[in-house]
Amino acid sequence: MDGIAPDVYAKQKSNAQLMAMQSIDSLIDANYRPYDQIVDIGCGDGDITKHFLGKHLPHKHILAIDIVPDMISYARSHNHSDDNTIEYLLQDMSIEWPELCPRVRELDGKVDLIFSNFTLSYMPDKWRTVGIFRRLLSTGGIFHANIFIIGDLNKKLVTNGQQPGKWYQSREKQLDDWRQSLLSDNQFLVKQFDIIDVIWPTDRQKMIDFMPIIVSKVRPFFKDDQSAYDRELNDHLWDTAFDTVVNPMATEPNPGAWKRFLADPTIREVNRHHRLLRVTAIKQ
Ligand SMILES: C[S@@+](CC[C@H](N)C(=O)[O-])C[C@H]1O[C@@H](n2cnc3c(N)ncnc32)[C@H](O)[C@@H]1O
Predict the structure, then answer these.
(1) Which residue lies with its CA nearest to atom 13 of ligand 1?
(2) In the chain, what are the domain boundaries?
(3) Cα(39) to centroid of ligand 1, in Å?
(4) 142 contacts 39 by C-beta, under 8 angstroms
(5) Any residues with Cβ below 6 Å from ligand 1, and which?
(6) Which atom of ligand 1 is nearest to the CA of 13?
(7) How far is the CA of 60 from the centre of ligand 1 (A)?
């Protein structure tokens, strides 16, 4: 995926922090089990790892993982733990189990809590991701995540005569895939599967900063057809991605939506509409 720089992310993260704190409160309230070994998937700059997970959930060790080198460097220098219980690791978590580095694989069956805040929408293959979580967790271990369910870009892509629906998963399909990947073979006991619709007012500059993040979420779904991604990227992808977030009910392409926003400085704020999935599941 395209890297998110820590300084750009820092301006965006208040909503992510709020959702993370709600999650941690719910984990404390549910009191499932002690979380000696925690893994934070997609830890970003490490703020949530240190100040939320590290501070509020008693633990022996937290392995915090991210794919972006700058994020891990930032986390190591700004969010290290004084008692050395937090370890930051550079690793792509979307790959197959045998390709993961030995440090991750040595936690096979030893993890009490896998936590992930707004990272799993980047994972193109949910079965593979859930399979890796199943492998890492001990029996009775908890998987908890907040996940963006991306708006249906298919309805809005200007497909130049190509078959719509070919590249992008609808919201229903994304939710179904998460549900099925957790439930198939009775792998997990799903305790919570909440769909949460939020509207986040976002000022102009933050929207400009946030757009590369929105566009980067789309890239993994084009993995089998990079030329289609490039075609859309060159033509309409930014318009499509922008319109999907600020105007989610519309079902027609809106060519030029992003370019018009950029060209009109009188638009000081937009509402970002997001659908979120909050899931808690126990490995059986
Ligand atoms: C929206 S940020 C969330 C960061 C942090 N969890 C928070 O809530 O503040 C998503 C993070 O996931 C990371 N990420 C994306 N794909 C990943 C992958 N395949 N493996 C590991 N981390 C990934 C990104 O680099 C980014 O730091």
Answers:
(1) 42
(2) 6-199+273-283, 201-271
(3) 13
(4) no
(5) 1, 4, 13, 16, 20, 42-44, 48, 65-68, 71, 92-94, 117-119, 122
(6) 9
(7) 23
Superfamily of domain 6-199+273-283 in CATH is Vaccinia Virus protein VP39 (3.40.50.150)
Per-residue pLDDT tens digits for 116-175: 999 998 787 899 999 999 999 999 999 999 999 988 777 777 665 555 455 567 888 889
pTM confidence score: 0.90
Q: 68 C-alpha vs ligand 1 centroid, how far in Å?
A: 8
What are residue 87's DSSP bridge partners? 63
